[in-house]
Amino acid sequence: GGIITQTPKFLIGQEGQKLTLKCQQNFNHDTMYWYRQDSGKGLRLIYYSITENDLQKGDLSEGYDASREKKSSFSLTVTSAQKNEMAVFLCASSIDRDEQYFGPGTRLTVL
Amino acid sequence: GDQVEQSPSALSLHEGTDSALRCNFTTTMRSVQWFRQNSRGSLISLFYLASGTKENGRLKSAFDSKERRYSTLHIRDAQLEDSGTYFCAAPNTGNYKYVFGAGTRLKVIA
To answer: Which residue of A has its CA nearest to B32?
Structure first.
């Protein structure tokens, strides 16, 4: 078995701040994803990566950057945090386009 | 783009009863995955199907192998711990994007 870890678990930022979220997986999966989930809503894809150093935009990429430094890690940067923003950011990984495995999430609050 | 419709959007069940959640796709999908999201926000994978049916305890899922546009999740003998939000998801045709339904919020009551 494997595991996906996300750090930090909780992130509090200030308006305009640049914030970075990290995700690590030890499944040895090629594909990794970042999703955003607003309260009471479904998941929206921000970025995904099909291999090391690859980046593909999702439906919600504006305002975010991503980095796939190595196969096991995928980082997401909020380039300028928006005031009163609250969301959960979920990282996932999969082999090719098969079953996805999710991390526990990072909860973002912007003051 | 590809769309996913989940029904019902919300559901209340008494303990011990059975029910079915549904997921309709606007186009043919190669596979479907069902998740439950608990109160802490963790997404737990329940089933991944490329075709046919799978069963795990009181849960059973089916993916229509012919049309490949319809999937169900059956809950038998509902228990309080089944409460949560259930999502279905499928990989978009031609790329690696997954499309997610809006979810079914299930509450099981004693």
So the answer is: A99
